[in-house]
Amino acid sequence: MKIFIISRAWWPIVKGGSEKFIYRVYERLLRKGYDVHVITRSDVKNDDRIHVIRSRISMPIISSYMFSRKAASYTNSMRPDVTIINSYWGESSSLYIKRDIPVISIIHDVGLFRSPIARKDLIRYYLRKHVLRKVVERADKIVVPTEIVKKDLERFLSADPDKIYVLGSEGADAPLRYEHIDNEFFDIVQIARFSPNKAQHLSLKMIRRLAEERKNVRLWLVGGSGVSRSEIEYMMQIVREAEEINKMFNRKIVEIIIDAEDVSQYYKIADLCIAPSIAEEGYGLSIVECMGYGKPVIASEIFHETGVVDEDRAYIFKTNDLDKFIDLVKYVIDHKEEALAKASKSLEYVRERCSWDNVVDKLEKIMLDLVKS
Fold first, then answer.
1. 275: which strand partners?
2. Which pTM value belongs to this model?
3. Element (H or E) spanning 258, and its range?
């Protein structure tokens, strides 16, 4: 069976959860013996299965539209048995793919409908909403990570529930055992793409106040630089604020790591992993990876809504509640044994639920059923 995968960005050139997801799917479908090809606009080299569509247009909306049209045209000419599309907000390639080519849309979240950040650019917001509605109508099957994404699709886009398949979990790139590198610091680690919804700014406010009381704390902000101008501007703002904090305390309290080749060393060094996101989340892949290293997790309630964390597996605070966030970090520092016991429960959860092989097995069944029908 010939399978096409369309994804604007490609792992590890762009380091994000949706990029990692679709890359792991690609790897394992190849392993299963399928004839898999990728269409992307990331500058991938040394893989003749990946067709790169380059754009000389700098305007994001137009360049995205041109990518979608060209990706669809190439797909139509090559006639795959099925096409899997990494359906970012506004990815419209499915709309131009011939109806007799089955399309599976992977939709990781539609958080823009509940996000004040997404609504700041009203033109872009309404364009995305319009395109997503059409994408949902066109898709033969829609695959989502969690129930909350399914409910959002039904609520905001009137999606047909019979077309939606809920994975329930994603895979974890983790050793599935406790691994730790000891040192003199209490290391707090956030691994996420630099973006306003990931709330690195909240993590900086937390460490600024915490460092006034606790002398051995250190914050690591590790993530991809993103692809949009707004994300890059946000990242530079975070870098500047981190430098100010380090100057204020006359020591390296905040470490910024951008586009790390390998994030495993940061999971290992962590005494605590944090995920303070304030919007636009459909799952929480980095949280699962933290758990897969046996590390305690503090997360905003968004990740309780997605189902990745509960009170047995993590410490949860109300979104944007800085005081509660700081109190929980202090509590974990002062109650390490309890935090590690909670982390051991989360490690068991990841062992039982979070396997890339299971994810791809589910996707494979959807593909086979769709092609047969």
1. 299
2. 0.91
3. strand 254-258
